[in-house]
Amino acid sequence: MKKYIYLIILIILLTTISLVFFHQKNQTQVIEELSPPPLLTERTETILIEPDMTFSTASELAGIDHTLMMTLLETAETIYDLSNIRAGKKLQYVFDITTNKLEQLIYPIDTEEELFVIKQEDGSWLAERKKIQYDIKIKTVEGVIESSLYESAVAQDVDIRAIINLADVFAWSVDFGMGIRQGDTYKFIFEERYRDGQYIMPGEIIAARFVNDGNNIEGYYYNEGEDKDGDLIDGYYDPEGTSLQKIFLKNPVNYRYISSGFTTGLRYVSAFDVSTGHRAIDYAAASGTPIQAVGDGQVISAGWNGSYGNFVSVRHNSVYTTNYAHLSQINVKYGEKVSQGDIIGKVGSTGFSTGPHLHFEIVKNNTKINPATVDLPSDKAVAEENLEGFKQAIIKWQEALRANPPG
Ligand SMILES: [Zn+2]
């Protein structure tokens, strides 16, 4: 009796296996019939540039002879110097599959443009710069801050580069070093760039909202076309069309240099306090952290200054001067013109100082004022004739930002 059972099981198994096998075989045949292999005319040799690799050695790996390599180098020169290729990027050599001759060379100049060196009909070579066409997806992120914007966003798996872009939008109105409060909220709508279905990087922030210590700040990207020099007139504006850019950045220590991110790496030691005579803000940051000029101006002091240690003073206009003390390194000279965001030195502990920090002062008409509470005006706005267009353009983003406020 047992023998029969085994036999039956064996038969069932064999039938199943053969059924599955034939079924799969059938499917495979169907797939082959539906999609014949595409007729390839090109073959691409992609060389990932290693440290110490030169354009010459990379080209050799791709099977390019010395003469052709020199031709490519010389042709590209007017657009991009290929002797400056960077490790980590890729060189693409595209060959004709039948002749096995190089047809074009592609190299990413930066995140916006690619260099193309293309063979012409007459056999000569031509170099071109082409804008990279990304596929764009629109993403919205919102959150409530417990400790820092950085940590809140990282907890939501948001690309850190998008967070830095967001902080850049509000760099004139929010001090990401010491101005963040528990319960602050943010919401932003931004582009994500994709190529061949793969996520590459965040693109422009379209609209953003930040509620900092109860103050609602909104910024909308707007582009008014080009000026007479061909430069784009664009930026972030509040709903009334006033630029978010002001004469001073909120924080002299740029969050993008704080590797551990925003408030976790950047604490303040002492606030502005008239009773103790400390008419400044002290920012604690690792020694060597870059310090930026908060506004455009001219250096009126750069050197040793007693208890201030290494000291830089920047005069912005007839009213305002800013001072930066205890630096470990000074990057500017007396008389030099600086622009907002320029690195003028590095955090240190020189002079009368108990540990690495930046002592930062704002002087208004010879009186030291509180950098945390100073409210500076904006001197830029959407041009009168574009204001109606701007207001129409932001309506849908405004609605999206204001819908279901977080918290
Ligand atoms: Zn101080």
Automatic annotation (TrEMBL):
One of its GO biological process terms is: proteolysis
| Subcellular location as annotated | Cell envelope
Which keywords accompany this UniProt record? Hydrolase, Metal-binding, Metalloprotease, Protease, Zinc
Gene3D superfamilies from the UniProt entry: 3.10.450.350, Glucose Permease (Domain IIA)
Which cofactor is essential here? Zn(2+)
Q: Name one GO cellular component term.
A: cell envelope
Kindly indicate whether the keyword Ion transport belongs to this entry: no
Give any GO molecular function from the UniProt entry: metal ion binding
List, for all copies, the residue spans of the domain called M23ase beta-sheet core. 277-371
What residues does the Csd3-like second N-terminal domain cover? 138-262
PANTHER family in the record: CELL DIVISION PROTEIN YTFB (PTHR21666:SF288), PEPTIDASE-RELATED (PTHR21666)
This protein is called Uncharacterized protein
Give the organism the record lists: Candidatus Komeilibacteria bacterium CG_4_10_14_0_8_um_filter_37_78
